[in-house]
Structures are given as structure tokens and as C-alpha cells.
Design brief:
- The complex is a heterodimer of chains A (about 300) and B (about 260).
- With about 300 residues, chain A is α/β, with parallel strands linked by helices.
- Chain A is about 25% helix and about 30% strand.
- Chain A folds into two domains: about 160 residues, Rossmann fold (3-Layer(aba) Sandwich), CATH 3.40.50.620; about 120 residues, Rossmann fold.
- In chain A, helix 3 packs across helix 4 and helix 5 packs parallel to helix 8.
- In chain B, helix 2 crosses helix 5 and helix 3 crosses helix 4.
- In chain B, a hairpin with a 2-residue loop joins strand 7 and strand 8.
- Classes of the chains: A alpha/beta (about 300), B alpha/beta (about 260).
- Strand 10 of chain A pairs antiparallel with strand 12 of chain B, so a sheet runs across the interface.
């Protein structure tokens, strides 16, 4: 089986998600060929062929042109699978390839079983097994679902690739994330507030628990979007990815995007009224309780230690 | 100006899901249904645009599915949509994104919409494919994951949400399609007068058989509850006891209390 892996660059730097596609190919025992629109100043560590298109010329976001470049490589390499990360780049590009190739696309793959792909459904409360009917399949991989066992090594054999294609979207520029006062990536303990806390006034209860544990306050996306907590404290794919030694999720159901941001934490405690909340899948301990009742009691007992 | 908003009706995500008898989808009995959250941003954006342009644009709201999806269409009309199109399909949940997109594209092809808006993904299946597929099938530019939208002189300046809080600003000429992300706007609650007005708005019924001209390219073999993480401990009980137990576990498993 041959897999064409689509790497990603941002502002000239290769993104780590590229190695997740490599890990996926390895798991399948597939021959891997890499493609990226990027820069030879930051090549992936990979012993194989890399089709590299110049991002300086084609742009980092230029869907019809990236599609055209990829279709050229697909015509040459004839892969069985085209693999992208389920990222803002991957989910934007993948359907365009699928449409052009008449191929099935399977999104946000977390596992493979007998040639069928496993993907989450209903906010990760269910798992769906999908089998493509087309001979070529486009897949996008859930962030963090696949990972190389060790550090990547190697030097790619680079082949430059070009295409004549018209763009139809003008890229104006990036807008950086607001710099917050908090860098959660350094925190050893994070206690996060989710929608389950009910009201903005209750953020303080969670913040108190964070303080008692010597940690930082984090939050899930809905809480940040509602304006209850600053964006710099958001944990998840559109916020920060964290791996503290202790992560306490308070009233957080465990949407995929949140889990992707914290599932590599050392020890995970979830406090939730719902025993079946998806956060339970990554929690070492799930405490079934109303966090608004438990957190203050916990805080007092910890302070008395 | 003609705007098309594509919406999907999905179950409330707070529901406890069960697998259906065939083992291939979730059981649709006893579920509360609502408009897909991401499609609400699309409806709201269309209505805001209509208001900004003095009411001139005409908003068509389309949904594919059984009889109950008319409720979602009616909500969109109550938010400010002008007319609804219900593509009647009892088995919409069995169709893959390619089939759904193809049905929508077949409908839209003759209609010359200037702008198509839809959610970036559905809350139940979450494939994030239909929007872009429709754009490709109609041969118009498509931009996903927008959290900012401004139209001036036939050109849209949109903000895409990337990872880690980063955003990208892009410009596209209409006709174009956009998929909407959380943060784009705050969808309005329909007022009672608007709910009443919506009852009088046109809601056309189309037959899916007239629009579906392709076959599925993928099939859902199985739907199941995820396996619980091995070794995960579940604690239940009285608050004080839970607190003591949890502190005991933290002392044993972590160094959080060691100074």
C-alpha cells in the first residue's frame, strides 16, 4: 500500500502534524511519500521522497493551487491513500482532492481496523467505522491520534514540484494570537473550567482550586467564547495544547477539540455530573459529582493539609 | 443578491446516545432535535448581511432530511430567512457527504446564488466535507472555518481561524461559499412576532430522488459506544468522602502536595 502524506508549513516552519501522518503510514505498514508546500530551509526528517513546492511562490493558503500541485503528484505516484492532518489546512484541502479524484474522504481518523477507518461521532460520544468504496481514499487524521515512537530521523530526497494553476482566494496575512499573560504550556498543574460551572461567577471557585493546588486556571472553549475567562487560558486545538503533570477538568464534557489539547497530561482528574461524559475516556479518575459542590470542599481540605 | 444557507438538523449533543438496532447509526427515537450549531452561525451571518444591505438580499434556507427538519428550516426563517427549501429524504442519515453535497449542488446549479453559507461541520457526523464539496461541484471558491466576514463591492474579506489562536485574513470575489466557525457571530433568538411571520413564508418541498444523481463513495459499517479507557477509576459518593478519596489518590499518584 502506498500513502501520499501531506505535510504542513506555517510561516516557513514545518509543523509537527507532518510526523503524525508518517506515524499513521508506519502503523499501516504503507510505503510513504511526502508532499508539502513549504521551504527547504526546514525539511522534514524522513528517509524517503519529498515533493516540495515553494510556499514563497504558491502561498501557504491557496486551495486551488495546492490541489493542482497535489493532483500532479498523485498522477505520478498513484497512491492508495492520501493522508492529511485534520487541521484548518487539512479539512479545507481534503474535500477538494476527494471531489477531483472521485474518491471517498474519511475525516478525523483515530484508528484503522481491517481496512476500515474509525472516526468519532456525536462529540466523541460514539465511534463510527467507515469503509471507503473508492480505490483511492483521502483521509484526515485527528490531531494527536497518531505519533512516532521516537524522534524522527532521516534526510528526504527532495523533488521540486510546480503547477500552472489559478488561485481564487487572496491571502492577505496572518493575525497573531493575542499574547496573554499566562503561558499554560509551562504550568505543572492546570485546573480548567468548563460549561458545567454554569455561570461566570463560578469561575472563581475553580480558580481557587487551581491556586490551592499551586496551579494555573485553564478553560474550555465555550467558557472563553462566552467571555468568562481570557482566551490565553483556553485549552484545546484553537487554544493551547498542554501537558502538565496534573490536569483537573471541572464541568468539562470532553469535546474532541478540548481532549486534543490536554490528553497528554501526566495525570487527569475529571469532575463531572455525567458519568458518560467523553472526558472519562482520558481521565485517570472521574469523580461523578457537582463540581460546584465538590471544588470548594476540596479547596478547603487541601489548604488544611 | 441571492444567498443560500444550508442547514442540518442534528440531535442535542447533551443526549445520551444509543446505537440503533442495525448497529449502523445512533437510535433516533426519543431525541431532542435542533439546528446544527455551526449552521446557526451561517443563518445569522446571512441575516446580518441582509440587514446591512437594507433588506435587499433574498435568503433561501435549505435542508435535507425527514419531515422533522422543517422545524429547523422554520427557525432559520424566524431568524430572518426569506424562503425555505426542504429536500424530503427519510434516509438522509444513510447518505455520505458526497451524496449530500451533490443533492445541494444539483439544486443550487440553476439558481445562481451569489453567496452560499453553511456550518463548518455537523455536530453529529462532523466530517466537515459537505461545504467544500458543494463549492467544488459548483466551481466557486470555498473558504472554511470563518470567524470574520465583511462584504464590500462584491469582495468578501474573511478571517479563517487556524490553530493556537492564530487567524488568517483572506479576500474572495463572489460568488463564493463559506463555512462558519464558532466565534463568527452570536445567533439571535427568534422573536415571537418573527416566529409568527415565518409561518407565512414559502417552504417548498422537493423530492431527493429528483436531485440525487450519484452513488455513495463510502459506507458506515458500524456505530458503537467507545471502549472505556482501561484503568480509569470512577468515584461516586458523598462530597466530603469524595474529596478525601481524591486527595488520597493525588498524594499517591502525583507529587502535587510535595513542596
Amino acid at each position: 500500500m502506498k500513502a501520499l502524506l501531506v505535510g504542513e508549513y506555517r510561516e516557513g516552519k514545518l509543523l509537527g502534524s507532518t510526523y503524525e501522518t508518517l506515524a499513521f503510514a508506519q502503523k499501516l505498514g504503507a510505503e510513504a511519500v511526502l508532499f508539502a508546500v513549504g521551504s527547504d530551509s526546514d525539511l522534514p526528517r524522513f528517509d524517503g521522497k519529498l515533493y516540495l513546492a515553494d510556499a514563497g511562490r504558491y502561498g501557504e493558503y491557496n486551495p486551488p493551487v495546492h490541489k493542482a500541485l497535489l493532483l500532479e503528484v498523485i498522477a505520478k505516484e498513484k497512491p492508495d491513500l492520501v493522508v492529511l492532518s485534520h487541521s484548518s489546512y487539512g479539512w479545507d484541502l481534503a474535500p477538494r482532492l476527494a471531489a477531483a479524484l472521485g474518491a471517498a474522504q474519511v475525516s478525523e481518523v483515530v484508528d484503522v481496523r481491517d481496512g476500515a477507518f474509525i472516526v468519532p461521532a456525536c462529540n466523541a460520544k460514539l465511534r463510527r467505522q467507515v469503509r471507503p468504496k473508492s480505490s483511492l481514499t483521502v483521509v484526515t487524521l485527528q490531531t494527536g491520534a497518531f505519533g512516532l515512537p521516537g524522534e524522527p530521523v532521516g534526510t528526504p530526497a527532495v523533488e521540486r514540484i510546480e503547477a500552472q494553476a489559478e488561485g481564487n482566494v487572496e491571502f492577505v496575512g496572518y493575525e497573531p494570537a493575542e499574547k496573554g499573560a499566562v503561558d499554560l504550556s509551562r504550568a505543572e498543574v492546570i485546573v480548567s473550567a468548563g460549561r458545567g460551572i454554569g455561570k461566570p461567577e463560578n469561575v472563581e471557585i475553580i480558580a481557587n482550586l487551581a491556586r490551592a493546588l499551586g496551579g494555573e486556571l485553564g478553560a474550555s472553549r465555550p467558557v472563553v467564547d462566552a467571555g468568562w475567562v481570557d482566551h490565553s487560558r483556553q485549552v484545546g486545538t484553537t487554544g493551547q495544547t498542554v501537558s502538565p503533570k496534573l490536569y483537573v477538568a471541572c464541568g468539562i464534557s470532553g469535546a474532541i477539540q478540548h481532549l486534543a489539547g490536554m490528553k497528554k497530561s501526566g495525570f487527569v482528574v475529571a469532575i463531572n455530573k455525567d458519568k458518560d461524559a467523553p472526558i472519562g475516556e482520558v481521565a485517570d479518575v472521574l469523580v461523578v459529582a457537582d463540581v460546584l459542590q465538590l471544588a470548594p470542599v476540596l479547596t478547603e481540605k487541601i489548604k488544611a493539609l | 443578491m441571492k444567498i443560500l444557507v444550508c442547514i442540518k438538523q442534528v440531535p442535542d449533543m447533551e443526549s445520551r446516545f444509543k446505537v440503533n438496532a442495525a448497529g449502523t447509526w445512533y437510535d433516533t427515537n426519543d431525541l431532542a432535535w435542533r439546528m446544527n450549531e455551526y449552521d446557526e452561525y451561517a443563518v445569522e451571518q446571512a441575516v446580518q448581511l441582509k440587514e446591512q444591505q437594507g433588506g435587499a438580499p433574498e435568503i433561501t434556507v435549505l435542508s435535507v432530511g425527514p419531515e422533522r427538519v422543517k422545524e429547523a428550516i422554520k427557525k432559520a426563517l424566524a431568524m430572518g430567512g426569506d424562503r425555505g427549501v426542504h429536500v424530503q429524504d427519510e434516509a438522509s442519515f444513510e447518505k455520505d457527504p458526497f451524496e449530500i453535497a451533490s443533492i445541494i449542488a444539483e439544486y443550487a446549479r440553476g439558481e445562481s446564488f451569489d453567496l452560499i453559507l453553511t456550518g463548518m461541520q455537523s455536530q453529529d457526523r462532523g466530517s466537515a466535507q459537505v461545504g467544500v464539496l458543494v463549492g467544488e461541484m459548483l466551481g466557486i471558491p470555498a473558504v472554511t472555518t470563518i470567524v470574520g466576514f465583511a462584504l464590500e463591492n462584491g469582495t468578501v474579506t474573511a478571517k479563517r481561524e487556524l490553530e493556537g489562536g492564530l487567524k488568517a485574513v483572506v479576500r474572495v470575489r463572489l460568488p463564493a461559499l463559506f463555512t462558519c466557525q464558532l466565534g463568527l457571530n452570536t445567533p439571535r433568538y427568534p422573536t415571537l412576532p418573527n416566529i409568527m411571520k415565518a409561518k407565512k413564508k414559502e417552504l417548498a418541498a422537493l423530492t431527493v430522488g429528483d436531485l440525487l444523481k450519484v452513488e455513495a463513495v463510502a459506507v458506515t459499517e458500524k456505530m458503537a459506544l467507545p471502549e472505556k479507557k482501561a484503568g480509569g477509576l470512577v468515584l461516586e459518593g458523598e462530597i466530603g468522602e469524595l474529596a478525601d478519596k481524591l486527595i488520597g489518590i493525588l498524594k499517591e499518584k502525583t507529587a502535587v502536595f510535595k513542596s
